């Protein structure tokens, strides 16, 4: 206490959370005059280094203890709003992520914040240069009229190099003027091009607009068949948020690939929204971050990390394709962006729309029980019919050995392209062949670091592990027996399908679309554009092509292997397959002409395939929901996974067993009950399954064991996990425990 006098009058004690793996803010003393408030960003010493952090609370009137370190400086950053800080606290508690790491999700993008750089623009002075070449003449013509232009724009308009612009400045024919920085996004006009909605669309839009207007936290499921105009409908909700002076966030699973969406948005609102994903430069992201905090930026379309932007007046969140697995973040902090979007909306008192043609079981149940509003569009827009679906029974009319396209599908493709329309062949498998083996000795190529076969990529002449990315050259001889010409590719990937298509349709313009080709998102965006513009007759693709795209000339979809993924033993296999196949067949017939889809399957009677073929989504949902309810699976019960991994299999298994023991030795808690080991669990008890080898037992050289916590809906799973980790033995020998609350992936 005596040291308190050391601090000058007016010094503050503040709790600062740093963006590192700690769970609690630390106290610091801030010099008088900083006038810190919660949400402010500061720099502080932490251990031996200096870091930035966010003031989590200010202890008003507290006398600083002498041992407190000092806040070094205050950063020039807009404050992190209270609602966002509350959301971060909540997310950290729910997902068992250290709070500092949860904070980092929200502040990482701000780290690069450089002040917005002013730009230099050019305009004509009226002086003519001494020598007027045709190029110079074009340049001066482009700069005419007293307006200012960027150097790039002038050079482009005059088809000359930037050097010509410089030369004209030297000669006094152009002058440079300083201009304010370019805005991160231009103003949007909610009335720019409002569509004429159809009655069902209008009804759905009305409910959303009402919710946005009354500023009420209200989740909606917007469920409409593919091509029903869900996008048009939620655009009206965005327009309403804009009219109200608020902000809107649209989350999309593959935003980096959806140039089409941005164009559509611009056609509706006059300008594009701000884009937010890993392909956007650090600097740009820092500017978007700031503009979201000041309210200057009104609409962001982004990947899951956009959820952590510091919006200052968020009125609407849209989660497009809400059922998509891509919303689950699995490395580092593991959270489900769709679920967390609902939580964020609650903190913000915002409206939230989950849009899908094939909602997740969780969301469907929430809509059926009335927790979410349920808006439905039962038919395609513009009276377009749904595609006609037909099975191809591979047992009776399959292709000849070594081929993958059945005669009837080949026939349909031929007819389609002869009419000048497009066909899409869907196979959710990258590469040439999923397995390579030696016909002489039976040797199979597998990854040494993972429990997985190596996938042949013939274009790259390589064998690739799809789990860890390991690449090796495809040898000419078997490494085991030395035989040459003995290596055989087993099963098809998209590259092999392309080979077959080229043989069947040598004159067709064929494109393979796959995420692993060089060129990244840029290339895929361009290719998607080309498809939409009719530059190809046959498109062969993985699930990349299934997502939300509009290809007006596409009238035939061939699903090459509908059974792929059904036999995986994953509790979500049925749901995922149903969603994916609906999505991909939904690409057919979105333009003027009706669509058709042929489904190659060995089990046309399988409930998932049957539901798809009959178009009876209701029967599928009823059955799948009943199944989950009986099994106590989400959303009727809760799951959490503990993945224990180590370089040494015995160490991983040993630690997993120790965790299991610790769980059963926990003292009784009023918030949860743990079932006795080996006994039959009561309805209100938490059960721990395993440890079992994870389905992929080895990844990146680490052996993995899994414990699955299965709990009734009302149990405090997080409380249980926290208690368990607090009493469990220390992780030694490189053992890692990863916690996944609400796991989506059971690999
Ligand atoms: N009211 C409307 N007036 C004119 N065109 C419309 C209208 N509603 C929808 N459309 C058009 O119908 C097509 C499908 O609409 P949209 O992409 O919004 O459907 P969706 O339900 O989002 O589809 P998906 O789930 O397959 O992505 C688009 O080309 C869209 O412009
Ligand atoms: Zn591997």
From TrEMBL:
<protein>
    <recommendedName>
        <fullName>Replication restart protein PriA</fullName>
        <ecNumber>5.6.2.4</ecNumber>
    </recommendedName>
</protein>
<comment type="subunit">
    <text>Component of the replication restart primosome.</text>
</comment>
<comment type="function">
    <text>Initiates the restart of stalled replication forks, which reloads the replicative helicase on sites other than the origin of replication. Recognizes and binds to abandoned replication forks and remodels them to uncover a helicase loading site. Promotes assembly of the primosome at these replication forks.</text>
</comment>
<feature type="binding site">
    <location>
        <position position="481"/>
    </location>
    <ligand>
        <name>Zn(2+) 1</name>
    </ligand>
</feature>
<dbReference type="GO" id="GO:0008270">
    <property type="term" value="F:zinc ion binding"/>
</dbReference>
<keyword id="KW-0067">ATP-binding</keyword>
<dbReference type="Pfam" id="PF18074">
    <property type="entry name" value="PriA_C"/>
</dbReference>
<dbReference type="InterPro" id="IPR014001">
    <property type="entry name" value="Helicase_ATP-bd"/>
</dbReference>
<dbReference type="InterPro" id="IPR041236">
    <property type="entry name" value="PriA_C"/>
</dbReference>
<feature type="binding site">
    <location>
        <position position="478"/>
    </location>
    <ligand>
        <name>Zn(2+) 1</name>
    </ligand>
</feature>
<dbReference type="InterPro" id="IPR040498">
    <property type="entry name" value="PriA_CRR"/>
</dbReference>
<keyword id="KW-0413">Isomerase</keyword>
<dbReference type="GO" id="GO:0005524">
    <property type="term" value="F:ATP binding"/>
</dbReference>
<feature type="binding site">
    <location>
        <position position="441"/>
    </location>
    <ligand>
        <name>Zn(2+) 1</name>
    </ligand>
</feature>
<dbReference type="InterPro" id="IPR001650">
    <property type="entry name" value="Helicase_C-like"/>
</dbReference>
<comment type="similarity">
    <text>Belongs to the helicase family. PriA subfamily.</text>
</comment>
<feature type="binding site">
    <location>
        <position position="447"/>
    </location>
    <ligand>
        <name>Zn(2+) 2</name>
    </ligand>
</feature>
<keyword id="KW-0547">Nucleotide-binding</keyword>
<keyword id="KW-0862">Zinc</keyword>
<keyword id="KW-0479">Metal-binding</keyword>
<feature type="binding site">
    <location>
        <position position="468"/>
    </location>
    <ligand>
        <name>Zn(2+) 2</name>
    </ligand>
</feature>
<dbReference type="InterPro" id="IPR041222">
    <property type="entry name" value="PriA_3primeBD"/>
</dbReference>
<dbReference type="GO" id="GO:0006269">
    <property type="term" value="P:DNA replication, synthesis of primer"/>
</dbReference>
<keyword id="KW-0235">DNA replication</keyword>
<keyword id="KW-0238">DNA-binding</keyword>
<dbReference type="GO" id="GO:0043138">
    <property type="term" value="F:3'-5' DNA helicase activity"/>
</dbReference>
<feature type="domain" description="Helicase ATP-binding">
    <location>
        <begin position="211"/>
        <end position="377"/>
    </location>
</feature>
<dbReference type="InterPro" id="IPR027417">
    <property type="entry name" value="P-loop_NTPase"/>
</dbReference>
<dbReference type="InterPro" id="IPR042115">
    <property type="entry name" value="PriA_3primeBD_sf"/>
</dbReference>
<feature type="binding site">
    <location>
        <position position="450"/>
    </location>
    <ligand>
        <name>Zn(2+) 2</name>
    </ligand>
</feature>
<keyword id="KW-0378">Hydrolase</keyword>
<dbReference type="InterPro" id="IPR005259">
    <property type="entry name" value="PriA"/>
</dbReference>
<dbReference type="GO" id="GO:1990077">
    <property type="term" value="C:primosome complex"/>
</dbReference>
<dbReference type="GO" id="GO:0006302">
    <property type="term" value="P:double-strand break repair"/>
</dbReference>
<keyword id="KW-0639">Primosome</keyword>
<dbReference type="Pfam" id="PF17764">
    <property type="entry name" value="PriA_3primeBD"/>
</dbReference>
<dbReference type="GO" id="GO:0006310">
    <property type="term" value="P:DNA recombination"/>
</dbReference>
<dbReference type="GO" id="GO:0016787">
    <property type="term" value="F:hydrolase activity"/>
</dbReference>
<feature type="binding site">
    <location>
        <position position="465"/>
    </location>
    <ligand>
        <name>Zn(2+) 2</name>
    </ligand>
</feature>
<dbReference type="GO" id="GO:0006270">
    <property type="term" value="P:DNA replication initiation"/>
</dbReference>
<dbReference type="GO" id="GO:0003677">
    <property type="term" value="F:DNA binding"/>
</dbReference>
<dbReference type="Pfam" id="PF00270">
    <property type="entry name" value="DEAD"/>
</dbReference>
């Amino acid at each position: 206490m005596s040291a308190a006098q050391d601090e000058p009058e007016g010094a503050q004690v503040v709790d600062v959370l740093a963006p590192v793996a700690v769970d609690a803010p630390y106290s610091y003393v801030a010099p008088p005059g900083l006038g810190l408030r919660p949400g402010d960003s500061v720099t502080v010493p932490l251990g031996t280094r200096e870091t930035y952090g966010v003031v989590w609370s200010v202890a008003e009137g507290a006398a600083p203890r002498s041992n407190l370190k000092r806040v070094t400086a205050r950063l020039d950053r807009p404050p992190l709003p209270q609602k966002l800080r509350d959301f971060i606290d909540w997310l950290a508690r729910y997902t068992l992520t250290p709070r500092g790491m949860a904070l980092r999700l929200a502040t990482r993008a701000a780290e690069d914040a450089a002040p917005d750089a002013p730009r230099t623009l050019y305009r004509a002075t009226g002086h003519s240069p001494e020598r007027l070449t045709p190029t110079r003449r074009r340049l001066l013509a482009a700069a005419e009229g007293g307006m200012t232009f960027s150097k790039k724009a002038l050079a482009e308009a005059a088809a000359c190099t930037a050097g010509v612009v410089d030369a004209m400045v030297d000669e006094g024919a152009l002058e440079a003027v300083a201009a304010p920085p370019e805005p991160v996004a231009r103003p949007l006009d909610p009335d720019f091009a409002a569509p004429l909605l159809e009655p069902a669309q209008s009804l759905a839009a009305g409910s959303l607009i009402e919710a946005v207007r009354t500023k009420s936290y209200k989740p909606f499921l917007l469920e409409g068949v593919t091509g029903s105009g869900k996008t048009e409908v939620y655009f009206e909700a965005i327009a309403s948020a804009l009219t109200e002076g608020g902000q809107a966030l649209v989350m999309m699973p593959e935003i980096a690939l959806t140039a089409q969406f941005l164009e559509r948005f611009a056609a509706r609102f006059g300008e594009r929204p701000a884009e937010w994903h890993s392909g956007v430069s650090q600097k740009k992201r820092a500017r978007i971050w700031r503009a979201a905090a000041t309210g200057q930026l009104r609409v962001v379309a982004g990947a899951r990390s956009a959820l952590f932007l510091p919006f200052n007046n968020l009125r609407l969140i849209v989660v497009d394709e809400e059922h998509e697995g891509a919303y689950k973040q699995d490395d580092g902090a593991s959270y489900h962006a769709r679920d967390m979007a609902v939580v964020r909306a609650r903190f913000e008192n915002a409206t939230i729309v989950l849009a899908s043609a094939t909602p997740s079981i969780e969301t469907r149940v929430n809509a059926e029980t009335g927790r979410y509003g349920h808006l439905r569009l039962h038919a395609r827009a513009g009276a377009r019919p749904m595609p006609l679906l037909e099975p191809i029974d591979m047992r009776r009319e399959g292709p000849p050995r070594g081929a993958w396209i059945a005669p009837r599908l080949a026939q349909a493709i031929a007819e389609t392209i002869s009419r000048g329309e497009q066909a899409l062949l869907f196979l959710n498998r990258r590469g040439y062949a999923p397995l390579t083996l030696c016909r002489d000795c039976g040797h199979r190529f597998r990854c040494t670091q993972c429990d997985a076969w190596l996938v042949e990529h013939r274009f790259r002449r390589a064998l690739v592990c799809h789990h860890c990315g390991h690449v090796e050259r495809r040898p000419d001889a078997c490494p085991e027996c030395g035989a040459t010409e003995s290596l055989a590719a087993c099963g098809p990937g998209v590259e092999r399908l392309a080979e077959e298509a080229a043989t069947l349709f040598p004159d067709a313009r064929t494109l393979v679309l796959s995420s692993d080709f060089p060129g990244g998102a840029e290339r895929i965006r361009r290719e998607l554009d080309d498809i939409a513009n009719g530059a190809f007759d046959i498109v062969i693709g993985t699930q990349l092509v299934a997502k939300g795209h509009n290809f007006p000339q596409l009238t035939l979809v061939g699903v090459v292997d509908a059974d792929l993924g059904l036999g995986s033993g994953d509790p979500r296999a049925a749901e995922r397959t149903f969603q994916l196949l609906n999505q991909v067949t939904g690409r057919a017939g979105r333009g003027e002409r009706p669509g058709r889809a042929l489904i190659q399957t060995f089990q046309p009677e399988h409930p998932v395939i049957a539901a798809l073929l009959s178009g009876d989504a209701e029967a599928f949902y009823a059955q799948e929901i009943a199944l989950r309810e009986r099994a106590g699976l989400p959303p009727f019960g809760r799951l959490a996974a503990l993945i224990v991994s180590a370089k040494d299999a015995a160490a991983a298994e040993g630690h997993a067993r120790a965790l299991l023991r610790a769980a059963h030795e926990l003292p009784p808690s009023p918030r949860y009950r743990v079932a006795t080991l080996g006994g039959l669990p009561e309805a209100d008890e938490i059960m721990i399954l395993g440890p079992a080898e994870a389905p992929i037992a080895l990844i990146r050289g680490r052996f993995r064991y899994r414990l699955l916590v299965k709990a009734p809906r009302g149990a405090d799973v997080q409380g249980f996990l926290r208690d368990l980790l607090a009493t469990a033995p220390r992780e030694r020998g490189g053992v890692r425990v990863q916690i996944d609350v609400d796991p989506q992936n059971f690999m």
